[in-house]
Amino acid sequence: MTDWIGILTQAGLTALYLFLAVVIGLLFLGIGRKITARIHNRVGPPVYQNFIDVGKLLAKKSNIRHNWIFDLAPLFGLAGVLLTLAYLPMGGYRLLSGEGDLIILLYIMVIPALGFALGAGASANPNAGVGVMRALTLMFSYEMPFLLVVLSLMIFYNTASLDVLLNKQMNYAWAIAVLPLSALAADMALQGMMMEKPFDIPTAPHEIASGPLVEFGGKYLGMLMLYSAASVIVETTLFVDLFLGGGIVLDPGTYGSVAYVVNYLVWLILIFIVWLIALFINAVFPRFRIEQAFKFYWKWPTIIAAIGLIQAYIMSVFLGVVP
Amino acid sequence: MNENPLPSVIPEKDWKKIQRMLSKRSLWMIHFCTGCGAMEMPPTMTSRYDMERFGIIPMATPRQADLLLVTGYVAVKTLKRIVRVYEQMQDPKYVIAFGSCPINGGIYWDSYNIIKRLDKYIPVDLYIAGCMPRPEAIMDAFLKLMKDIDEGKANGWVRYRKYYEKYKANQMRVFKRWDE
After folding, report:
1. Which site from A16, A194, A315, B4 is most exposed, i.e. has the minimal number of CB atoms within 10 Å?
2. How much is the ipTM here?
3. What is the pTM of this model?
């Protein structure tokens, strides 16, 4: 007989984790606006401003419509990003896992962005088309150093499974201590992945009227704000999982449910630190042009990531360092 | 139309109150810079007067905006664009007319191609008098608009729906044709 209670408990727990992730993402966006305002010597909005914004957008009385692809695009983006969150270990707990899920994750992470691009293209606005083109070019640029970094991690830890990677980091050492160059390259790639300031080329509001978002208003924009809040959590958690051990400090096998709470809090602090680094860079930089971003990504982060790859190879093959 | 999600739990009156409270605290603005009033916007947005502390931020497109600012005189040619921008915005939407030109024509009162009263063509919720109004006056107007929204008095978008034919007739009196 199927264990219905167990399945329901797990589904409820996953829903709780996903809901918490979206709430934390909105809170992070609000904190980001406040900190940016303080850097600009302004007062800034309250930290709960983004909750009010989402509520207002979802309570708007009319929505613009174009066609059914445009209608489905925000749902596509939100569902894709929630699926990615279900694959990522947030402080130890996750619903979906499997063999080689690091590679699966790299594929799934593209789904929400592609769905979003589909909706923007369906709106037939030229600004949206330019924005989507820029977003795809930017993705093409930062994937190069990022894939090299993931390859060096796979070689050093000798696995393509996130669970094994987190376990080995907990028992041996965090990857940022062993492979600092790869961590540096990954953080540079993260800035482009989060579309923060030197690389906010796809949604440049002053050039192309917020790019792919140009035709979205009302409830659609509210859904897309939830999507961007969740994707902040996806990207920071990805860095934390790969290099900072996913915030797992206590083994759930020995400490039980206390370990889940402690790991969750440590994970929260770590993603907040990663988000703050991205935010400080965002607050003081102007914007690259798209070809400058492409040249930058295929030059410096790629060189650094290649050196990191060589270091990982030498350490694990010639020096025999086995975590 | 966005209905009450839980009619059995939340009374209709409270739902409207919640909607007004949310839209009051998060006004996204698009400023249609027709005249010299545009110069007063940068100090209002940046660190000296900082309107973001009330949740008011500039938006890039009319689809995302709730608040239309018409900053200065309105020529007949510009009025057509203003009407188009206004009709692209999503309900509920509010309009602030800025300076003395949209009130009575200002220094352009006898010009051949400037309209005298903006209120005849699109519903205006609030006027700011002055030539030009200082940023303090603009901040005061924002606070007044927030108060009006809270009390349910800023209902220009309802008026535009109700008297659509009359507004259209007024607009067509000054436009020769729509497509130029």
Report:
1. A16
2. 0.84
3. 0.86
